[in-house]
Design brief:
single chain, alpha/beta, Rossmann fold, OB fold (Dihydrolipoamide Acetyltransferase, E2P), 2 domains, 5-stranded antiparallel β-sheet
């Protein structure tokens, strides 16, 4: 898990850095003393977690948090308690009031790690696909994309293709949230996309169309998924 610290106080940054050293699953990839510099970094590099002060020069932590992709976890760290209600409206993971002790910090980080693990499990949940007289048990992460062909759905997986008699809606209902419909005939696994434009995306050697009907939703999901 990649994390950054954004705080205008050097001592606060060093304290949080020392706390993060206790968690091997978290990689600290940057520290910033103002929100604009942090945002510049975030526009180029993906992160999973931000430890974010609220009162800072140029741009406040609250404002910066509203500019982030929805999949980035935020823990606010501040000397002021009056922003707590607003922070929870933003759906921050936690709100830590300085001075922050290690025990309280640990509870927040464990919450983030647990959430990340649950998300990973959901993305790789098992699904069942009936093909003729056989029923296949598939890891959803192994599915590259689904292609509708008449009354049948073709499951294009990493090592096989499975044909099932089902509708697009029936397929979507059993797939996890990291799948999105891009066209009346295609559903793709966002985790397996290699590249994309506004009109198509690449999965392996295949080019999948993005139709006008689904374009806005698909591009929004792709932008929010880029840090994964």
């Amino acid at each position: 898990m990649r994390a950054i610290i954004v705080d205008d106080e050097p001592k606060a940054i060093e304290l949080l850095r020392s706390y993060l050293n206790h968690f091997s699953s978290i990689e600290l990839v940057g520290t910033y003393r103002n929100g604009l510099k942090a945002f510049e970094f975030l526009s180029k590099e993906p992160v999973d977690l931000i430890l974010l002060d609220i009162n800072m020069p140029h741009i406040s932590g609250i404002t910066l948090s509203k500019m982030l992709p929805e999949n980035v976890k935020v823990i606010f760290t501040t000397a002021y308690s009056e922003y707590a209600v607003e922070s929870y409206e933003i759906q921050a993971v936690d709100y830590l009031v300085k001075p922050i002790n290690l025990e309280r910090f640990t509870k927040s980080i464990i919450r983030v790690i647990s959430s990340q693990e649950q998300s990973a499990e959901k993305k790789n949940q098992m699904i069942f696909v009936k093909s003729g007289f056989e029923t296949y048990r598939l890891e959803s992460a192994s599915i590259l994309f689904l292609e509708k062909d008449g009354n049948y759905m073709n499951y294009h997986c990493m090592n096989q293709k499975i044909i099932a008699r089902e509708t697009v809606q029936e397929a979507i209902q059993k797939l996890p949230d990291n799948f999105v419909q891009t066209h009346k005939s295609y559903i793709v696994n966002l985790e397996n996309i290699k590249s994309y434009t506004s009109n198509e995306l690449s999965i392996g050697k295949e080019k999948i169309s993005i139709s006008e009907t689904y374009k806005n939703k698909v591009l929004e999901r792709l932008e929010n998924n880029v840090s994964r």
